[in-house]
Amino acid sequence: MKNKYLSIYDEIATQIKSGEISPDTLLPSENDMTVRYDTSRETIRKALNLLSQNGFIQKVRGKGSIVIDVNKFDFPISGLVSFKELAQKMDNVKTIVSELSLIKPDANMKRQLNLTSNNSVWKIGRIREIDGEKIILDKDYLIEELVPGLTEEICADSIYNYVENELHLTISFAKKEIVVVEPTAEDRELLDLDGFHNVVVIKNYVYFDDTTLFQYTESRHRPDKFRFVDFARRTH
């Protein structure tokens, strides 16, 4: 027999996913829910904690539990995670490798990757499809000398997993820049952008632990599917 808190979780999660409970709705108080479900406050708290952990609600001190728009995915700004790691929280995710080639960098790419010679650079295009919609275009440029041996299979899975577990290199930090721009012709060709007039572009400069810059990325997002989140602490 299923634990009662799991039954409560399933019922509320289903109502949120179906739209029966709308985003930004404040759920009833814990006391009201104990009466509604004829159970203990501890059971209600377990159900709410699970809803919070799985991204259905956000607990706000002094207010209660507020329903999150489940059609948007949290994209951590301050973190450095691969799309594969983010995708573990999503359903129906697919990566399409649209390009994998070695190029000689032009002046702009040399500047982006701090190159002073004509080192070969991997140029990688990856389309991220979620629930059948193409909503992210990742354009990656990596210095081939530092990250050798890339294949389409690796790019479709996880470049970071390959770098860390096959090449045994340590990815340490990234500098990020976020801008909102009009879609390019390439964006419109490769992404499902009907009705959208902007894309959110996250530019990443990614470094190894010895401060060597090895990757420059432009991650171009359709703006309706992601919530860009960060955590900040005030210093005194």
Task: Detail the topology: elements first, then pairings.
Elements: H1 4-18, H2 30-36, H3 41-53, E1 57-60, E2 64-67, E3 73-76, H4 83-87, E4 93-103, H5 107-112, E5 121-130, E6 133-143, H6 152-157, H7 159-165, E7 171-181, H8 185-190, E8 199-208, E9 213-221, E10 226-229
Parallel strand pairs: 3-10
Antiparallel strand pairs: 1-2, 4-5, 5-6, 6-9, 7-8, 8-9
How far apart are the termini? 52 Å
Q: Assign the CATH architecture of the largest domain.
A: 3-Layer(aba) Sandwich
Quickly count the domains.
2
Order of helices and strands: HHHEEEHEHEEHHEHEEE
Please sum up the structure shown.
Keywords: DNA-binding, Repressor, Transcription, Transcription regulation. This protein has helices at residues 4-18, 30-36, 41-53, 83-87, 107-112, 152-157, 159-165, 185-190; strands at residues 57-60, 64-67, 73-76, 93-103, 121-130, 133-143, 171-181, 199-208, 213-221, 226-229. It is an alpha+beta fold.
Overview of this structure, please?
This protein is α+β, with helices and mostly antiparallel strands. The protein folds into two domains: 4-67, Winged helix-like DNA-binding domain superfamily/Winged helix DNA-binding domain (Arc Repressor Mutant, subunit A), CATH 1.10.10.10; 73-229, 3-Layer(aba) Sandwich (Chorismate lyase). It has helices spanning 4-18, 30-36, 41-53, 83-87, 107-112, 152-157, 159-165, 185-190; strands spanning 57-60, 64-67, 73-76, 93-103, 121-130, 133-143, 171-181, 199-208, 213-221, 226-229. Strands 4-5-6-9-8-7 form a six-stranded antiparallel sheet. It has a two-stranded antiparallel sheet with strand order 1-2. α1 crosses α3 (41-53) and α2 crosses α3 (41-53). Keywords: DNA-binding, Repressor, Transcription, Transcription regulation. One of its GO terms (molecular function) is DNA-binding transcription factor activity. One of its GO terms (biological process) is negative regulation of DNA-templated transcription.
